[in-house]
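Q: Here's a chain of 335 amino acids. Please give me its 3D structure as tokens.
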Amino acid sequence: MKNRPIPFPVEGDRLLFIRFSSLGDVLLALKKAKALKTRFPGLHLTWLVQAEYEGILRMQPYVDDVFPWDIGRGRLTVFQLISRARQANFRFLYSVHHNDRSALVSALSGIPVRIGFHKNLQFAYDHSLAKARQAWELDVILREEVPLQVSEKQREKLFEKMPVTEGRFLFCAIGASKGFKRWPSGSWAVFIEEACRTGLTPVLVASGPEEEQMAGEIVSSSPQEVINLAGKLSLEEVCALAASSELAIGGDTGPLHLARMTGIPCIGLFAVRDPARYGHRGNNLFSLVAENPFEVYPEKAKGGSPLESLSPEAAVCLMRELAGSWRKARHHERI
């Protein structure tokens, strides 16, 4: 770690921004990338990310280019990325991913000014993130909310997969990376039945075999019309669905972050006492926290999920309140 002053970017400088994964963390890092571009408009920002998130990033106006990493081809392909970075004439590297691979990329990149953090490999960086934020006066900009941009092309692709193209869509993010973060399928079925009665059209969003099976259980348990798009959408199309919906509901999962960033009201179903600790915050997020929640998420949870204690009735009451206020707000906007 160097003690000398950190240089300022100038017009035409190129910066490699690193956040590989996961979906929620990539979305939360958007405001950091936007802060850099707001502070230094002439900076060319390239984002190094896992390939599945490339499409979302290319829709954002403050991301100039993307280096996609197809980790499915093997972790050693990171050396191909390092070679590409060495040839791209970057002046700055700015990493908000704090793992070994990001430190490796930084150490071998040959980039003159490297900013980041690793608790054991700090030699890989010249300056800390805290130092850069202070010197470059980024903290004030970082407080601003960053809306997620969605292209019309992705909206069109979404509606090609939808049985209807108009309606009051309810974005239902039913899955999560770990079982204890998921609301039981029985609770979803009760909630969805009431949502249909209020005139909303639930659309199920999920990925992976377990979540797709859960979606099937929800659909088979609900006598109402439900659109099941589990496993059928790209991430860009999930963005388009959120932006086209009246309301969203889901647990601690990337699609809930995504929906919140499109600006629609979101109901969060949380098994942890302080959802903000995991990036869930914003004026359009309305949290329901389970009884006896975790203080910090465990790697594995013994027994059932705390979300089993979260009643569908509580979510229904909040849904009715938010849907009504949203429709009133839209009505006033049209007037």
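Q: Can you summarize the key feature?
A: The longest helix spans residues 312-334.
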